[in-house]
Amino acid sequence: MGVAKIRESFIENRRVMRKVLASRPKSRQRFVWGLDPSLSGTGITILSKDGRDLYEKEYAGDVSCLTTDPKAKRYARMDYIQQQVSAKLASHQPLLLVMEDYAYGAKLRRELLGEVGGVIRMALWQHNVPVILAAPLQLKKFLTGKGGGSSGSKSAIMMEVLDKYGVKTENDNEADSYVLARIALALVQYFGSKACRYGSSITSKKLINHMKKMPVEMKELGCKQYQWEVVVSLVLNKGGRVADFIREED
């Protein structure tokens, strides 16, 4: 992506998130979500946005998995997932939701995962939820500092979540959703901080320099350099604009 496009993405995502932070009712400002779509078990984590430290164990939040019956018909399972996600959104509307995006290089079950992802995306659109999509490798890097290898295996992710956050998860879907919720928390903390003060007048050069160095505010919240790199990649990614999922007139 060219420098001009990067600047455009930053300005648009900042504009939308600043508006969301300023205008959403307080009842919606209490929660951030992480969501890991899967037909067998969609992982959902709901965290309080008031957590100060990204590693603070008191903010374990609500971690759950929408498990479906493998013997049931495909669309009955999808309908169940959509209904349950919608019900949770009605009671815990998020300020921001980070969802794992498709693994575009995958060779197996791509069509099925696309259908599940589409059903969930429509529920998020209907509830006017601000969403940022995170690639699987971004999720793993935010937790472990590495994007792949053994540190990114399913069992390793569960162990890392337990070790770093003191949260025991029942499966990798729950563990992934927890990491995604932590990414959402970091993004909200950045967008709401004084560090994110630049508007449309920012030059491309100043923006690049700003994003290279982690702001002091994020360091004080416990953000690690490799986590900041993930935050930067999501903030500047035009393919994952927050505006794509919300109806701004609401």
3D architecture notes:
The protein is an alpha/beta fold. The protein has a single domain, classed as Nucleotidyltransferase, domain 5 (2-Layer Sandwich), CATH 3.30.420.10. Helices cover 49% and strands 12% of the residues. The protein contains nine helices and five strands. It has a five-stranded mixed beta sheet. Helix 2 runs parallel beside helix 3. The longest helix is centred in the N-terminal third of the chain and has 21 residues. It is globular, with a radius of gyration of 17 Å. It starts with a helix and ends in a 15-residue tail after the last helix. 38% of the residues are buried. About 3% of the residues have low confidence.
Total DSSP E strands: 5
Helicity range: 40-55%
**What proportion of the residues form beta strands (DSSP E)?**
5-15%
**What value does the average pLDDT take?**
82
Oligomer: single chain
| Rg (C-alpha, Å) | 17 Å
Give the CA-CA distance, first to last residue: 31 Å
Biggest β-sheet: strands ordered side by side in the sheet: 3-2-1-4-5
Order of helices and strands: HEEEHEHEHHHHHH
Tally of DSSP helical segments: 9
Supply the CATH class.
Answer: Alpha Beta
- Characterize the overall form: globular
In CATH, the homologous superfamily goes by the name: Ribonuclease H-like superfamily/Ribonuclease H
